[in-house]
Amino acid sequence: MTAASDRRSLDAEPAVAGQAVEGDLRVLFGQSIAVFASLVGPAHVVETANPAFFAAIGEHRARTGVPLVELMPELTGQGFIALLDEVYRTGEPHTGRDVRVVLGTGPRAREAFFDFTYEPRRDGEGDVVGIRVIGVETTQVKHAQHLMTEHRALLEQIARQAPLTEVLDGMARCIEDLAPQEVLVSVLLAEPDGLHLRHGAAPSLPDFYNEAIDGIATGDGVGSCGTAAHRREPVIVTDIATDPFWDDFRDLAGRAGLAACWSTPILARDGSLLGTFAMYHRTPRAPQDVDLALARVFAGTAALAIERHHTEQARRDAEARAEAARAELVKAMRAEQELRAEAEQRAAAAAELADRMRAASVAQAAVPHPRQCGLGGADGCTEPAELKVADAWGDAAWGCHSHAEEALLNVRSAFIANEELGGLTAYLNRRPSRARVTEHPRT
After folding, report:
1. Domain assignments of the chain as residue spans, ordered by start
2. Whole-number pLDDT of residue 107
């Protein structure tokens, strides 16, 4: 073997060893959930990648032998290609934690998070010839953390008795933000009889749609929500355009741009109906396990919020009834006080009239029938004396019609003593006499 051939063999050994390492890495990462890609050259050509890498960026882009920027042009504006250039130039690895990246463009774009490392690949002489990308997608962990944070915030809102509409609206927006694909959330509240559903929250559905379904009946075949409320179980409609449950609402859903609706009943701890929790989609869709789990979690949260609201409402109603009862009691006590005061005033007036009768009786003792009324008291009365009034104590006095009638009304034992009139009944039946009473105003 010549020296030249020996030198070529020695030069080839690192290359062969490097290929072997890359082969082993492909084996190690082949079925891993970690993403792996091996890039070569300053253009970062994708030499190889594992299925998890292509699953992350989209199976429709599963190609090798092309620069990464051609495969994923969206990375340029997010700084990732510049980082690769830096690692390739300096030979220094770079590590990122929970780094946000938007994968894809247009309708297929999705937000993702990764822990990753850019590790330089070197040849036998130590020169950088490429970069290995190793990472783990943390999107679900990130979303789970976000979910827990939002869920905790909702529970705190419920604990501090925030308005139900505020809690439900916040919950709907939270789910819409967390969902990996576009979803529109609606919460309907059951009326006390459980026969109808009223609007609770639906921040992303059009107003005309919310108004149209506000008050829909619960029953089998009444859309997804009416049916779920009636059956007390989830109802999954994957294609509104063909499902018979939506026969009466298909045109309405079409105008709102809705193509699928998954509804979960919201039940109280005793099994009674509180409402429904619905997830709408703009394309026909069947739920995955994560969708159903999300629905269950937030249906339970909604149940807690609604039950707390009902309890608080019942407490406020009871307090309002108690306050109304207290107000009525105060009103009755005041009325009683007024009646008591009026009775005391009448008693005082009666005592005063009795004193007048006694005084008049003494003054008229020597005069059988005086000319002027003797019942006018200190103010006096110049009206002619026409009626004789007496009481059970034997006192008697003459007075005008007004003062005599005042004595009859206020002095319990007073009576008309005119023998020719035949007593009080006969007197009251004498119309001319009663007409005369109105002619002599009370003094």
Report:
1. 13-137, 143-316, 343-439
2. 64
Helices (H), 48-106: 51-57, 68-71, 80-90
d(CA 200, CA 187): 5
Phi, psi of 180 (to 5 degrees): -65, -30
The CATH class, in words, for 143-316 is: alpha beta
Q: Is the confidence at residue 324, as pLDDT, over 90?
A: no
| Residue 178 or 441, more confident | 178
Q: How far apart are CA 229 and CA 253, in angstroms?
A: 19
> For residues 176 and 172, what is the distance between their CA atoms, to the nearest angstrom?
6
Query: What is the pTM (predicted TM-score) of this model?
Result: 0.55
Q: What is the pLDDT of residue 2?
A: 45
Place of tokens 């449950």: 245
**SS3 of 183, please?**
coil
Topology of domain 13-137 in CATH is: Beta-Lactamase (3.30.450)
Do the two domains 13-137 and 143-316 of this chain adopt the same fold?
A: yes
Considering only CA atoms, which of 42, 16, 37, 23 is closest in space to residue 128? Answer: 42
Cα-trace Rg, the chain: 48
Give the contacts of 178 (CB within 8 A, at least 6 positions apart).
143, 146, 147, 150, 294
What are the DSSP calls for 112-164, one per residue?
EEEEEEEEEEE-TTS-EEEEEEEEEE-HHHHHHHHHHHHHHHHHHHHHTT--H
If one compares 362 and 157, the residue with the highest pLDDT of the two is 157
Classify residue 18 by burial, with Cβ atoms within 10 Å: 0-12, 13-18, 19+: middle
Phi, psi of 417 (to 5 degrees): -105, 0
